[in-house]
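The passage that follows is intended for readers who have already worked through the single-chain material. We present the inputs for a multi-component assembly, then the predicted structure in tokenized form, and finally a short commentary. You are encouraged to pause after the input and sketch how you expect the pieces to fit together before reading on.
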Amino acid sequence: MKNRLIFYALITFSFFACDYTSYPQGKALYEGQCSGCHGLKAEGFRELYPPLTNSENFRKDPYNTACLIVNGLEGPLEVNGITYDQRMLAIEGLTDVQITNILNFVADEFNPKVPTPLNIDLVNERLEKCKNDPKVY
Amino acid sequence: MKDNWLFIIIIFFGIGCTAPDQQDPNDQTTIMVDGKKQLPILGERKIVDGKTVFHQIPDFSFINQDSMVVNNATFKDKIYVVDFFFTSCPTICPKVKKQVLRLYDEFEKEPRLQFLSHSIDVKYDTQEKLNSYGKQLGISSDRWHLVTGVEDEIFEMADDYFIAAHHDSDAPGGFDHSGRLILVDQNRHVRGFAEGTEPESVTKFMGTIRMLLDEK
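Having made your guess, compare it with the prediction:
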């Protein structure tokens, strides 16, 4: 009887599990700060805003995204063979922990080839480098 | 502030019938005319020589993404949907643009419906910027104009369309503006609106547009 209850509980639970993420803060921040342009599923929008899903750029260097968030970006950028050229404004007021959580959510949810967790020390190291020279990514 | 409003309301009642009538720009409930449902004409109205004069979009002249002049004559015998945005807007604009794009696709075969998006960031959004934005969005200036012009004139037009738009250094990107879409008829009257950030509101708006297209 008890086993049966656990079985049903697990089944019920699994329905909610679809929405599960290991990075709830990253998810909330992504949805609030990034999804307007990049989409809730990080699918991008036409040729205006690049996708973050299965992005070659993100896979090659996920920590670079920390600099893009903090400094914004202007000028052409090629992602998965398409050149995008809209200005992205810097997102202000995020802590290194929050940025790391966003990166981990983007990696975990949209870029299965990127091993998680991404490391906060490496995020800080990268931010230190691009802080004074936004063009160095 | 509240007291001020009370004062205005009292004055309003005081002058009674001489006060100009007003169709609340936030109320687009349909009205019955000759037994047929019709969209109201929004905004202030006055009685001049016994005739009702409705709020009308004034003359304007802007430049679109293909360097062509866009003015009232551009929309002669047409109806059009208006919004205000800027290309690097990180908050509501992408959401609104996705919704306008839905309308653009939905009414693909209806040349009488046009779209007019004003950039409120005249410094950054040059004609070239709007051109690349239009291309990357995948739209044509045959039906959808992305315009720039004199800053003050653009902000003044926002007032005429009952849309809030102004500089705000605290807002992301430096501008505070509403994501409202406005529907204008062939007589330059505002006939309806939608919240461009809300897909359901825009779905309803499709019905509003059809109603206006069916109007003779």
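Commentary: The radius of gyration of chain B is 18 Å. The domain at 61-214 of chain B is CATH 3.40.30.10 (Glutaredoxin). How closely did your sketch match?
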